[in-house]
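Hey everyone, long-time lurker, first post.

I ran two proteins through the pipeline my lab uses and got sequence/structure pairs for each. Pasting them in order. The first:
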Amino acid sequence: MQLVYNYPSQFRIKTTALLKRLWKALATFFSNIGKSIVKGQQARADFWILNNMSDKALKDIGVTRGEIKQKFNQKD
C-alpha cells in the first residue's frame, strides 16, 4: 500500500492553524494594551482625587500629601 499525500489540504490545515495562533496573539496583545491604558487612567484619577482632598480629609484616612506623591511615583 502506497501513502498518498494531499499537499493542498495539508497546507490549508497548517495555514489555518497558524492564522488562528496569529489572531489569538494579536487579540492578547491589544487586550493587554487596553488593560494598561485603563490601569494608567485609573491611577491618574486616583491621584487627582487624593491630591484634591482637603488636609482634614487626608488626615482622616491617615495619608499625607508627601505619601500620595511617593506612592504614585514608585516603580512597581
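...and the second, right after it:
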Amino acid sequence: MKVTVLSHNLSSNAAMRALVLAEAAKSFAEVTIIGPARRAGQWPALPDEPWIHSVRKRRFPEFYDSFVELLDLADGDVLLAVKPQLASFGVALVAGERRGVPVVLDVDDLDIALTPREAWDADPLTIDPSRPGSAVYVSLLTRAAGGAAAVTASSTTLAERFGATLIAHGADTSRFDPALVDRAAARVRYGFHGPTVLFPGTPRQHKGIDELTRAMGELSGATLAVTCRPEDLGDAAWDDRALLRVPVVPHADMPSLLAAADVVAVPQLDSLAGRHQMPMKVYDAMAMARPIVASAVSDLPSLLDGCGVVVPPGEVGALASAIGRLLADPAGAARLGDRARRRCIDEFSRHRIAERLEHVLTSVG
C-alpha cells in the first residue's frame, strides 16, 4: 500500500500531526508527506527526510500552481488529509475523485473554533479568499467531512463530533526513552539551572500560557522554559514575564529537552478549541517519564489518571500549588513519571497507533 499524507502547511506546527501519522503508517505502507511550505523553510521540528515533499506556499491566484503540483504528488493508494484545509483535504478530494482512490480526513483540532465566525468581521483577513487558509474555506471543508471515506481524530471529543475513529498522537517510545539521554548534559545544553518547568508546545492563548506564567510567578526559585519561535510572545505584555525562551528544536532533539525539565506543564484552557484538542507533547513527556501537571480538559484527565497531576483549567493558584508540590518532592515526581512512561508504552506507543491507523486505512483501500 502507498499512502500520501497531506499537510496544509509544512511551515507550521500543524505539520507535526502529519509526521506522527506518516511515521506510524511507515510500519505497514510506503509513505510520503506533501504540502506547501514558506520560502523560509519547513517547521523547525520537522526532520529533513527525502519522503517529505514541499511545494511553494502561495496565495491565489498563484496558489493554483501549488494546487496542481500537489495533485500530481498525491499519488497514494489512500490519501490521508490532515485538517479540513484547502491545501490538504481540498487537494485530496480533487485528487481522489480524479484517480478513484479513497480519502481519509484527519482532524486534530476543531479548526472552525480557532477562527470563529463571530470574529470574522473584526478581522477581515481571516476570510480573505486569496488566502488558501481562509476561515471560509475551512468552514466549507469542515462541512464536507462526509465526503471522506473515513475520518480519524486525535481526541475523544473530536471523534464524537465527526463520527471518527480515535487515533491518539502517541509517542515513539523507542526514541523517546530517558535511558538514552544524559540529563545533566541536556540541562547544560538548554541552560536549565535549578528547578525548571517546561512548556513544550506552541505558546498560544488556548493552551494556557498566560495562566502558566502567572502561576510560575507564585513559585520562588523556579524557572519557566517555553519553546518559542522568534515571533512568539513578542507583545509588550510579555516583557515583564520571567521566562526562558528555548528555540523550537528538531523532533529528534525533543527527548533531550524533555529530559532536562523537572516538570512538564500542559495547562490547556476550557475553551471550545481547548476542549477538542489533545496536546501532542503530553505523550512525548509521558514517554520520557516526566512528571506532568495538566488541566482537566479534553482527554487529559483520563490519560493522566494515576500517572500525572490534573488541576481545574484556568485556576492559577491550583496550577502553582501542583507544580510546587512536584518540585518539592522529586522522588514522588519520579514515581509519577515512571508510571506515565509505562502507560505510554502499553497504550500509546508508535506500534499501538500504527495498529489503529492500519485498520482504518486498509478498511477503505
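Reply from user beta_strand_b:
Welcome! Quick read of the second one: The chain has two domains: 2-170+350-364, 178-347. The two ends are 9 Å apart (CA to CA).
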